[in-house]
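Predict structure. Chain length: 505.
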Amino acid sequence: MSESGERGESGAQPLPRNPVPPQANSYAAPFAAPPNPYAQGVYPNAQQNYYAQPPYGGPQPYGYAPGQHPPQFHAVAPPRASKTPIVLAALAVLVVLAVGIAVAVVFATSGNESSPERQARSSLATAQMRLLHTPAVRYTGTVTGGAAGSPTLTVDLIVTNVGEATGTVSVGNAHMDYLGVGGKSFLQGEESAWIALGVPAGVAKDYVGRPILIGPDVFGVDLATTLAPARLALILDPAAAHDKPVQLGTLLVIGGHESTPIISGGLTIYLRDLGADGTADQPIIDRIVNNPYDHRVGKADLPRLTLDTEHLLSADAAAVYAGLPGRIDALDRALDSRVSVDGTLNGRFLENPCLGTCTIEFTVANTVDSTSDIRITALSYDYTITVESQLNISTGADCAGAGTMAPNSSTTIRCTATYDPYQIPAGTTLPINAFAKVSIRALNPEQVRALKEQVGENGSAANGLSPEVEVSVAEDWTAYTAAGGKLSKSEWTTARTELGDRANR
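Prediction complete.
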């Protein structure tokens, strides 16, 4: 697995933090830039100076046991300081009392069978089941991550059932393109957008024009996996786990139709066309509002958010999947903001003096630091070596390439440059400067290929997915794991069964 970031410099200009200054040397003294890494993993463009010479040198009720097929329904259409991109740049004793309690509970339950709140919980559960089998959902609204200082995001995202996501994320007036695939989130935007997220200006400039792999710490939440319907649907009635009732709020209009809020702990779910008795023929979730700081019992594992939902059809999800391969191909240029690489570039000309043919060698060393959500086994890098001189000088194919190196290790790159020595008047010398730029990629080619295969399989599995199409419990479990769900199978089975039971009341 390769995880990393990148950094590029121009010419031999010094970097803002611990730069390695260009070195000028006579042809008699080989170049060796001092091993002076600068913080958070950007190598300056190391420079070599030599002198050339003349020649000499989801509709029915749910309530089935695990393993049975659920009936289906008709579908309705802060930030942490970003690490510099590298360049190297979880009964016997009280029988009478127990019986008395049991009778009391049964009596209370029986007397409450038709209460609007009880019926509303059942309608909510039915809506959750429908969401569970919805091919894709469009979310619009705001999200504020749970980490201290997390920005408030304005989002417009389409998220497939298992968590592929495309759309836009905005911080203030700065808008960024968002892509979520394979449990990874990528952003792409202008320099001002990155600065709005707290990225240092020098790093933000390097991020422009490239997809950047981010960790959950950037937003305080991973949007794609958190909003995946296969995962989200199970947690929208947090008070149920504590045997606490739901409450009904004041009806309002959302998207031109009436919607009733159902309050469960700190979470409020707005259901479309809910009757005064708490029932609905085909309940649909219109809006999700979560306040993690609400004092009521029952907390959903969600950040603060207010999101309107639009339940999409299978054809809409297919359109998303059709566009993903091209988006994934572009990730071969992605950088990883989660990884910091401190390093050095030491270089020299192997020929001294350089006569007609110049071989430039750079030793690239790295020291890796990463966030706890990743494990780095290899760094995939690209390099480019440029040679400048007053002479008409040509560089060979070996002056640009790619490779891998282990973290906390070093590697050597070489470049061959040639010129006609008879261009130089007798008795004169001219300088030749060499510059190296090394970029560490977020994904290597094999990882890009694996992502495309995974997304292709998810797209095939989602083909025809609809609340009206029967889905087995086993298929629901598969979708949950594909969406990055963290519950064990037994925990998930319990949650899934209880949800079906509530829908059938």
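Summary: Residues 445-462 form the longest helix (18 residues).
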